[in-house]
Amino acid sequence: MNISKEIAAKIEELQILEQNLQAFLMQKQAIQIDLNETTNATNELKSSKGDVYKMLGGIMIKSDKETTLKELEEKKKILDLRVGSMEKQEKLIEGKSDALRKEISASVSKN
Q: What is the chain's percent helix, strand, coil content, to nearest 5?
């Protein structure tokens, strides 16, 4: 089958979009893992009794429980916002990809 340069360019654009989406999803997954770890740490800290330690660089240091809890809660808020923003971007990329896929299908079926 002989495809036009226009269709070939759209297919290439679709492939690039799909690659970008995959990279984007990997970033989103890393942020979600960080969010889960932060949520778990927050829950553990709330239920803990006694001394609290946190990692700083390559060492553990004693820390104030309330300060550490505030830091974790702030980090969780930021990560929640990032995940929400990434989900919106993901929907936009998927929408562009779907529209381009339909466009390609329509062009191919005409030929």
A: 80, 10, 10
Domain segments of the chain: what residues? 82-111
Confidence tier at 39 by pLDDT (50, 70, 90)? very high
What is the predicted pLDDT for the residue at 28?
Answer: 95
Question: How many whole angstroms separate alpha carbon 48 and alpha carbon 40?
Answer: 12
Cα 12 versus chain centre, distance: 24
User: Per-residue pLDDT tens for 49-106?
Assistant: 888 998 888 999 999 999 999 999 999 999 999 999 999 999 999 999 999 999 999 8
Flag whether the pTM goes above 0.90.
no
Total Cβ atoms within 10 A of residue 96: 15
CA atoms within 13 A on the CB side of 1: 9
Picking from 89, 37, 78, the residue whose alpha carbon sits closest to that of residue 97 is 89
Beta bridge partners of 56: 59
DSSP H/E element including 43? helix 5-47
